Amino acid sequence: MKIIKMIRDTCYDLKIYLAGKSTADIKREFGLKSIVKLNSNENSLCASKKTIKEIKKNIKNIFLYPDSNAYKLKRSLAKKYQLSIDNIFIGAGGDEIIELIAKLFFNQEDEIIVSKHSFTRYSIVVKLMGAKLIVVPTDNNLKQNLIAITKVCNKNTKAIFIANPNNPTGTYNTKKEFSIFLEKMAINKFNSKPIIVLDESYFEYALSEKNYPNGLDYLKENKNLIVFRTFSKIYGLAGLRVAYGFASREIVNYIERVRPPFSVNILAQVAAITSINDKKHVLKSQKLVMKEKQYFYIEFNKSNIKYIQSAANFIIFNTLPLSGKEMFIFLLKKGIITRSLYEYDLENWIRVTIGSHKENKLFIKKINEIFKEYNKNT
Ligand SMILES: Cc1ncc(COP(=O)(O)O)c(C=O)c1O
User: Which residues surround ligand 1 with Cβ inside 6 Å?
Assistant: First the structure.
């Protein structure tokens, strides 16, 4: 029996998602005592104290199945965002939501549009479903080009993924750009409107950016729009796997049919409810990232390191004359985990998550050392 012959065609050459390495792995591999983890865009302030207290309080209930419909969580979200519960769905992280959308909508003859350098999970699920991936170039500053996207739409276009802000580039599209995009999509010459998936995983961090759009403002007018956000980033709950989405009642109803039962666990649900009501923690996290981002920009400028301004809690910087891979390894050896971006076609760039001031200071010290050592040896 050859397993390889039994695998579905679309799974045959799927690549394993390159998740950021764990600190335990790195310590073992490089014989390091301590590690600074700046590779997965987590919140360096962790989850809020209130949330952790609530998780502890509910640990005794883990023998029970969770509420599969997550009624209380949806009710809290509905209240916060002034929407009907029927317009809300949940998933075990944005990763599950992306997959649910693919399972629900993508047929083999469908074309799915993504921007170059956009979050890799989009292309993975397109491949998984055997649909056709259309990659649209970004503009010169690595920003998603929404007009270019409208131009490649045709009668086979089933969906478009837009991350705002995008990971890994950190760039965002403005209200004006997004409105024009939606207008152009509405009057396109094809009968069916494609599903527009707006991934706002870093929404709360981007709120301070000039003219940053809120996807929810466009929902009513655009029944083909799905907006989703996560508890993994600003809320500091990446380890619990919980995210939420907004869409028309009809789309939500179908999404619920493809979602595995109980996919969002009991602790994730209580943690999420507490987190969205803990405004203080969100504010503290926003302030820290805003301040530390300025610190990075100043230090990068001082050292003549090219970077892209980011609307999220991470920044990409150019590693030349070193390759991204080389810089990644040098940093690892010095005890700092970052994200190399070769699978995003950004071979000479590294993404660094904004951590605590102490972590960021250490990071800046280490990259300056690396560039200095390189220049001395060449
Ligand atoms: C743009 C984007 N979308 C979705 C996700 C998935 O996040 P999660 O599954 O933790 O909610 C991430 C995670 O890094 C992301 O950067």
Answer: 41, 93-95, 119, 163, 167, 199, 201, 230, 232, 238, 243
Looking at the structure, do residues 169 and 230 belong to the same domain, yes or no? Answer: yes
Q: Which tokens is 311 given?
A: 């609307």
For residues 225 and 350, state if they share a domain. no
Q: CA triplet 132, 121, 257: central angle to 5 degrees?
A: 80
Q: Are residues 55 and 186 in the same domain?
A: yes
Closest CA to 157 of 118, 198, 193, 116: 193
Task: Report the separation in Å between the CA atom of 235 and the middle of ligand 1, taken as the mean of its atom positions.
Answer: 13
Same-domain status, 338 and 212 = no
Same domain, 135 and 192: yes
Q: How far is the CA of 302 from the centre of ligand 1 (A)?
A: 32
Comparing CA positions, the residue from 123, 94, 48, 68 lying closest to residue 273 is: 48
Q: In what order do the strands lie in the sheet with 307-308?
A: 307-308, 314-318, 349-353, 339-340
Domain extent at residue 149:
49-278
- The total of structural domains in the chain comes to 2
Q: Which of 246, 278, 310 is where one domain is finished? A: 278
Report yes or no: 97 and 245 within 8 Å, Cβ to Cβ: yes
Pocket test for ligand 1, best of 119, 122, 162, 314 (most atoms within 8 A of CB): 119
Q: Which atom of ligand 1 is nearest to the CA of 119?
A: 1
The answer on 163 and 98 residing in a single domain is yes
CATH, residue 24? 3.90.1150.10
pLDDT tens-place values along the chain, 378 residues long:
788 888 888 888 787 766 666 788 788 888 888 899 999 999 999 999 999 999 999 999 999 999 999 999 999 999 999 999 999 999 999 999 999 999 999 999 999 999 999 999 999 999 999 999 999 999 989 999 999 999 999 999 999 999 999 999 999 999 999 999 999 988 766 666 899 999 999 999 999 999 999 999 999 999 999 999 999 999 999 999 999 999 999 999 999 999 999 999 999 999 999 999 999 999 999 999 999 999 999 999 999 999 999 999 999 999 999 999 999 999 999 999 999 999 999 999 999 999 999 999 999 999 999 999 998 888
The residue from 278, 308, 341 where one domain ends is: 278
Nearest CA among 256, 149, 241, 239 for reference residue 194: 149
pTM: 0.96
